[in-house]
Amino acid sequence: MSAARAGEVLGVNIKALREARGWSLSELARQSSIAKGTLSQLEAGTGNPTIETVFSLSNALQVPVSELLTERSVPEVVLVRSADLEVLSSNAVDLRLLRRLDLTDKVLEIYDQRVRPGGVQRTDGHPGLEHVVVTAGVLRVGPVGGTFELGPGDYVCYPGDVPHVYETVGGPVTSVLMLEYPKA
């Protein structure tokens, strides 16, 4: 999906979720701590969201991030090309949503995650569990005050609703991030 198409999908999903709750743009701005003008641009498909913006919207609307970023379809075969994906960036992390899986009682989002050398990403928390598998590099990750150092092939799972951190140890890190949410 091109960046322009991804922005359109995000805009359509934000508007649909906001309207389903009977919220005005002002109410969503209040709930998410995002400026009304920024939300208007996002709904129009012309904004440039950051990871923090998308997670703030996810928390405010109480939906998984993938609910905001994906079109609804159920193909038998799914091929995702990294080059076609919208990148959500922060000061340290680049995320690409590879797939959203709607399971019986859970939603699972699978991301390609890249952490830049010297980068530190702190997150206040969000619903669900985080699953992390490092594929290259060394990553310090987990709840603040109780992080783990992961190398290639290492895996950790922890509650996402507590403040947590992603930090490189040395060079760049590539990993798979899976966010597991209870189904709404």
UniProtKB/TrEMBL annotation:
GO terms for cellular component: cytosol. Keywords: DNA-binding. Coiled coil: none annotated. It comes from the Bacteria. GO terms for molecular function: DNA binding; DNA-binding transcription factor activity. Residues 14-68 form the HTH cro/C1-type domain. CDD domains: cupin_XRE_C (cd02209), HTH_XRE (cd00093). This is XRE family transcriptional regulator. It comes from Saccharothrix variisporea.
